[in-house]
Design a protein that fits this description.
The chain has 224 residues and is mainly beta. The chain folds into 2 domains: 3-74 and 163-217, Immunoglobulins (Immunoglobulin-like), CATH 2.60.40.10; 81-162, Cupredoxins -  blue copper proteins (Immunoglobulin-like, Sandwich), CATH 2.60.40. It has helices spanning 3-8, 15-23, 25-36; strands spanning 44-52, 63-68, 81-82, 84-86, 89-91, 94-98, 101-104, 115-117, 124-125, 137-139, 143-149, 156-162, 167-169, 175-182, 184-191, 203-207, 212-217. The protein has a 5-stranded mixed beta sheet, with no helix packed on it. Bound molecules: copper (II) ion. Copper (II) ion binds next to loops.
Length: 224
């Protein structure tokens, strides 16, 4: 193995690169060589989306996703994802996972819950259960699953299943930072639980070697 390749490995491996390595070992090697040939190091940058709502205020819990313009590849499932119930609420209320991820629904309340989803990407109902780990559910299709509880009508949560490992959820600042994005052209998709109707149209963005920020305003007026 040439020295340049092993020298490139200590750089933060972009998530997309890890995926590529799993899929096409030879292709990933070629990418690593290309990275090593650039004096500045790995060509990856942080891509931040600054979300605002209909009033122009920072929008929390919005999701930014980058899909390679050349088409989607396979993604690895995430590990140890939980949507718990505590104080008769789901926590977290918004969860983003990659396709194939198993999610458990532990109950930390003394009351029993009955978690369900009628969403087309995953329809399920967990039988009434008391404190405990709950059964894992595998989310094997991309899209949005809306969760509810048959006992407590006010409980609601959303699981967004995506085919790209390049995603981020916005903080209270409205900013969603996707880290270590390999340089290239991407389709930027956005989502928020408070949006009515279909997902907003995607836009094409180019990620280079420098960190970049993109402003996105979503017509969300009410928190979900
Ligand atoms: Cu409940």
């Amino acid at each position: 193995m040439p020295a340049a390749i092993s020298a490139a490995i200590p750089f933060h491996p972009p998530l997309g690169l890890v995926r590529w390595r799993a899929l096409h070992a030879s292709a990933a090697l070629a990418v690593l060589v290309a990275f090593a040939s650039h004096a500045g190091g790995a060509r990856a940058a942080n891509f931040t989306v600054a979300f605002t709502d209909g009033q122009g205020k920072p929008l929390v819990d919005a999701v930014a996703m980058l899909e390679p313009a050349g088409g989607k590849g396979a993604v690895k499932p995430l590990a140890d994802v939980e949507v718990s119930q505590a104080k008769r609420q789901f926590n977290p209320r918004i969860t983003v996972i990659t396709t194939g991820t198993k999610v458990t629904f532990p109950n930390f309340d003394t009351v029993r819950h009955q978690v369900y989803s009628f969403s087309p990407i995953k329809t399920f109902e967990l039988k009434l259960y008391a404190a405990g780990p709950g059964a894992p559910i595998t989310f094997d299709k991309p899209g949005v699953a809306v969760l509810g509880c048959n006992i407590h009508d006010t409980m609601a949560a959303w699981i967004l299943v995506t085919d790209t490992p390049l995603f981020a959820l916005s903080a209270a600042s409205g900013k969603a930072q996707i880290e270590s994005v390999p340089a290239g052209n991407y389709k930027l998709r956005v989502w928020h639980a408070g949006l009515n109707g279909p997902e907003p149209a995607s836009v094409t963005v180019t990620v280079g070697a420098a960190n970049a920020e993109q402003a996105v305003r979503l017509a969300v007026t009410l928190e979900p």
